[in-house]
């Protein structure tokens, strides 16, 4: 099975993890992507936000949530009273998965498989262990499944205080919500956005 686990160094900080992840060959996604997009922020972050995978812009720039979905997320964080300086933003999968459109011009996002999510999980676990945040926010179904297991359903569990299971001990509070790109795709964007915001406010209350 694909597994980044053997590539994750022990006893390093986030910079060491990031450097090791840059050369990850834990699954085949590195072949077509431009680069690994590791989490932003530093180990003092009090909130970790987990998305799905980098998109086209993130793949080019090497930073998470710098495209359209990121703009929605930043606005919602601000409105929910979560200071971006307190956050680390990362993804369940750290390489962009895509296929070319028929004309070979645009790279169309493809959802990562469960195997790819599982292969990448050791990076996410290592980030969460190092940062030890006060609250974790799962953005969308892929992040929710990566963190809570395959039976997670975002429509059922969003906006409630859950607990992140971490091997060996029980982890910090976790709040799941929709992915910010679902706001951009929604027929009623305003209602979808208000839902995202309400869920982020639940997470904001979990901050000490
Ligand atoms: N969507 C994600 O899930 N992650 C990103 O980094 C960008 C868009």
Automatic annotation (TrEMBL):
InterPro entries according to UniProt: UDG_Type-4/5, Ura-DNA_glyco_family4, Uracil-DNA_glycosylase-like, Uracil-DNA_glycosylase-like_sf
Signal peptide as annotated in the record: none
Cross-referenced SUPFAM superfamilies = Uracil-DNA glycosylase-like
Q: Which domain of life is it from?
A: Bacteria
Q: What CDD domains does this protein's entry cite?
A: UDG-F4_TTUDGA_SPO1dp_like
Provide the alphabetized UniProt keywords.
4Fe-4S, DNA damage, DNA repair, Hydrolase, Iron, Iron-sulfur, Metal-binding
Domain Uracil-DNA glycosylase-like per the UniProt entry, residue ranges: 38-201
Q: Which family is this sequence assigned to?
A: Belongs to the uracil-DNA glycosylase (UDG) superfamily. Type 4 (UDGa) family.
Designated name of the protein: Type-4 uracil-DNA glycosylase
The scientific name of the source species is Streptomyces silvisoli
């Amino acid at each position: 099975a694909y597994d980044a686990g053997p590539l994750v160094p022990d006893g390093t900080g986030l910079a060491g993890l990031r450097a090791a992840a840059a050369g990850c060959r834990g699954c085949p996604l590195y072949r077509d992507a431009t680069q690994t997009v590791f989490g932003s922020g530093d180990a003092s972050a009090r909130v970790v936000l987990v998305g799905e995978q980098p998109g086209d812009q993130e793949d080019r720039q090497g930073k998470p949530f710098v495209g359209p979905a990121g703009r929605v997320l930043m606005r919602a964080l601000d409105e929910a009273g979560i200071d971006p300086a307190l956050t680390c933003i990362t993804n369940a999968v750290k390489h962009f998965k895509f296929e070319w459109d028929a004309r070979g011009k645009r790279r169309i996002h493809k959802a990562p498989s469960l195997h790819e999510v599982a292969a990448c999980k050791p990076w996410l676990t290592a980030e969460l262990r190092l940062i030890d945040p006060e609250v974790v926010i799962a953005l969308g179904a892929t992040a929710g499944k990566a963190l809570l297991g395959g039976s997670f359903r975002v429509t059922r569990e969003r906006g409630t205080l859950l607990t992140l299971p971490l091997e060996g001990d029980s982890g910090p509070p976790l709040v799941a919500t929709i992915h910010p790109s679902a706001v951009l795709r929604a027929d009623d964007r305003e209602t979808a956005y208000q839902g995202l915001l309400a869920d982020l406010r639940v997470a904001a209350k979990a901050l000490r």
